[in-house]
# Entry
Amino acid sequence: MMTKEDILKQVQQLLTEAFELEAGVINLEAHLYRDLDLDSFDAIDLAINMESKIGIKLQEEELKLIRTVSDIVEMVYPKFNP
Amino acid sequence: MLKKLDLHMEWRRLATGLCFLTFICGGFVLTILVLPIILLCSSQPEQTEGRVLRLIRFCFKLFMQYMQALKPMKAFNIEGIEHARTLNGCIFIANHPTLIDVVAVLSCLPPSHCIVKTSLLDHFYLGRIMRAAGYIANDHVTQLLQGCQKSLQSGRSLLIFPEGTRSPAYGLHAFSRGAAQIALRIGAPVVPIVITCEPLTLLKGDPWYAVPPEPVTLTLRFLPALDIPQTITDKGGMPLQARALTRYFEDFFRCQLREMAEVSTAPYAPSSWCTPDPR
# Structure
């Protein structure tokens, strides 16, 4: 059982390690492109990291819908808790 | 009291207007007359592409001479062009101080693809030429990478303005990471082109009739392909490498512009320029 807080923690860790970000700026409302300065190339690596570190494979259509950290958490949560 | 009319300047204002008009009409004629002929006479898309790219280069060469003949431009200097000629399939990155520099760069590069905003490819007539030339849209990342890979593998080069828009007066915008991402993911030599324009003209938002006090001297300085430092390629993961390489490119351009300013009289160098960004 994974709670949304657990997922947020993992996502925070992933983002700080892979994208040179400070943990403090990664809150649920943070917009990946506007606030966290990711670009569309980084989205490819976000998907790769999600798969290798959290074990969740995101489809390309799902990736396109992601805008904020909260979007990631909401998308991952049902996959852990079907 | 009336200000004394500077006839030279008024002539350059008129000539600048003529240049714009020529560019617009020339583009229109190319689209409705020349492009259909090329399309009819070419059997393969690659053949069309090559012909359109050579046509663009030829027309831009003429246009550079036209601007010098009409006098809004005093001189057009090209330095180190051999760095562009000896390489096939490289990525040219340039700063973008003025509207004219795109024309200037494309007039002397070997036929190269530009990466452009998708909205430009949808321009009602210039878009057709750019599509026929095989220019690459920047909106869809997978297609963008495929397009770049195809160009580079076929020996064509890419031209990227990492600032994404025209530079601010005597400065640089922060570089976007596209050029670094493409260079790292596809693996091609990166050749910098440092562009200066004295006096400045046609910055973003400048109206065409706001001509500078003197005719313009445009200088393109091609430099040897950049070696990507191992400290960058050693970093784990593409995002970290791309961030570091982008900073490296940006610092390189800031230092080059500052060096060029030291031998010129133009105010190209606020003192903060060579200090690395605290990113």
Observations:
- DSSP finds four helices and no strands in chain A.
- The radius of gyration of chain A is 11 Å.
